[in-house]
Amino acid sequence: MKKLLLILALVVSSTSFAMNASLDPAVKMVEGCLLEKEILLCNDSITDVLKSVSLDARGEFVYYLKDLVAKNETEKVIVNLYSKLQALVPVYEKLDGCNEWSCRDLKIFLGDVSIRYVKISPIDSSLYIELYKAQAVQSGRYGLLLTLSDKADKATKLSEMDEMIKFAEFAKNYSRTIKDEYYLYQAGVSIVRKMTLAALKLRPGHEGVYKVNFDNTEVTNNLRIDSVVIMESNDRDALVVNFVASESRIVKVSFKQAGILGNTFFSNEAVYNNDDNQEIQSPFFKLELNRETNTISGVFSSSRYGKSTFKGQLEKSNISVYGQANIEGLDIAQLVGNFSVKVGNYNMKLIIGKRDADQGIYEAALVNDNALISFSKVSFDSAKGIISLVDSKNERKLTLGVIEKANTIAFKGQFINAPQAQILEVESK
């Protein structure tokens, strides 16, 4: 039986090219590792053999290992290779230098093994960051991003989501610094957005209007930003943070696809500038939310005014909508229709309809004799009994709990009006 296993090991380890004879001792050791321990590199003497052969032979050994992995890929093999190849890289660097193909190909192979390793390893931002920096070529970094984007879909805990965001934040900024192609940056942005959306479902209580003060008098006097409005949008735009001059009813700058890491909110990628405010090009922000005191502190930066710190206090949020007795388990199709509602002191009609029958896309509007507010982004959380309706500019949002009133479906919730930095109560009449 043992002879049969050895024969099988020799068969699976055979390569499609003629091996340098000087590698025979190393090949026999690898075959022994495969036979006895079901891994490839278990004998430290393999390194001694590689030190004694030529540069070309060391390069051939890399191709030999690649061929073996293709035929014998298991979790044990990948874990073993991930560890042992890292020890081989310095050997190749010292003997050949990584301008030579042998060392360069070994690093690329390690990058490929690393991508396979992260599929089976626990979620760990520190590990991913080191692997990202170690990738020898841009295609390796992109492959790692794609692999981790798939892995992010399996994250179920806030701690795992935070780890993925830490990595993606680093990766997108690192790729921009070393001048990778833009699609790598966008891949990092996408992971941040995806994980932020997932975290929002587990970490409520941040949506609302915050009154803020800036330490930079020029920002205060010229931009007149006095409010920050935080709101959740749809899957594409995710978290939206609006910086508002409420006296003039203007959203000065809106950060779509913003990220959230713990209690830190930050600009991620997509930014909308009001057409009349070209003096605030290329802005970014970062703020910390104290959930116990409902206060925020952060930094806002623009090309004209530089960095300015600010502090603020929550004036009003929509968290109460999540704590009321909403009806759970309904289908959004049951909410289609016309409903009389009161928005603050205004009597209006809420119209919910289906825009695309095939794709199940809904739209809505608030209407009265003096106003029409359209909501193109409609989503429904059946488990919580809450429907969310957002306009195309992410400046106005309805967050409504579905309740029962006089034995019929009714709504109770709030209306966020970002340009006015205002939240109004909404209830079916």
Can you walk through the features of this model?
This protein has 429 residues and is an alpha+beta fold. The chain has 3 domains: 2-200; 208-317, Beta Barrel (Lipocalin), CATH 2.40.128.20; 320-428, Lipocalin (Beta Barrel). The chain is built from 12 helices and 18 strands. The chain has a 9-stranded antiparallel β-sheet with strand order 13-12-11-10-18-17-16-15-14. Strands 1-2-3-4-5-7-8-9 form an 8-stranded antiparallel beta barrel. Helix 7 (125-134) runs antiparallel to helix 8 (138-152). The longest helix has 21 residues, at 75-95. The radius of gyration is 29 Å and the shape is elongated. The termini are far apart.
Task: Name a few traits of the molecule.
alpha+beta, eight-stranded antiparallel β-barrel, 429 residues, 31% strand, 12 helices, Lipocalin, disordered N terminus, 39% helix, 3 domains
**Treating each run of at least 4 consecutive H or I residues as one helix, how many helices?**
12
Tell me the strand order in the biggest sheet: 13-12-11-10-18-17-16-15-14
Order of helices and strands: HHHHHHHHHHEHEEEEEEEEHEEEEEEEEE
Judged by helices, strands and strand pairing, the structural class is: alpha+beta
Brief account:
With 429 residues, the protein is α+β, with helices and mostly antiparallel strands.
Detail the topology: elements first, then pairings.
Elements: H1 2-12, H2 24-37, H3 45-52, H4 55-72, H5 75-95, H6 101-120, H7 125-134, H8 138-152, H9 158-177, H10 182-200, E1 208-214, H11 217-223, E2 227-232, E3 239-245, E4 250-261, E5 264-266, E6 271-273, E7 284-290, E8 295-302, E9 306-317, H12 320-323, E10 337-343, E11 346-356, E12 361-368, E13 371-375, E14 377-381, E15 386-390, E16 396-405, E17 408-417, E18 422-428
Antiparallel strand pairs: 1-2, 1-9, 2-3, 3-4, 4-5, 4-6, 5-7, 7-8, 8-9, 10-11, 10-18, 11-12, 12-13, 14-15, 15-16, 16-17, 17-18
